[in-house]
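Q: Got a minute? One more chain.
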Amino acid sequence: MSDISRPPLHLPGGANKLLLHSCCAPCSGEVMEAIQASGIDYTIFFYNPNIHPQKEYLLRKEENIRFAEKHGVPFVDADYDTDNWFERAKGMEWEPERGERCTMCFDMRFERAALYAHEHGFPVMSSSLGISRWKNMQQINDCGARAVAPYPNLTYWDYNWRKKGGSARMIEISKRERFYQQEYCGCVYSLRDTNLHRKSHGRPLIKLGVLYYGDDEK
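A: Always. Here it is, folded:
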């Protein structure tokens, strides 16, 4: 555990058990350490069938498992049901980042997390997705609220993980742990658009599995 000073956290409604949907180790590192520093009992739920290709998916998942095991945090490895994700994404292939396709993607992942939370007695769920400055936090929170709506005893915790130095600590932890540094959001369309942007600016295309936080400091 880091010796970083953080404000104490309190779950909604006085709850003391949390299901945390995690998208990757870099985003969840600060979130996990902040939750643990406040003595909150939590479990990681890894459900991200959007991540493409499978090599990238496995890299991100294995990094998250490594960090969870380091802190003794239970890790739920959910399905990689990519066919379901692609079916839902039909007609949204050219949606921009933060658009309708991203809303669909958050909804899909949070619905599965909410179902697991409901079935396993978690009163609160949240996600590490909101700490990224590349994401629309209101979009994420709206998806979280929709996901828990069918379950009266389940709350979505919309804590702003970026505030009070959270974003800076996220980078600090990522460098300390030398996490794998993904270079696009995750889905095949994000990979396509990122590479198109790079190509138009004369930059090399993304290479999977080669960049890690802290490498630029060597």
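A: The beta strands are 17-21, 41-46, 75-77, 124-127, 155-156.
Q: Perfect, thanks.
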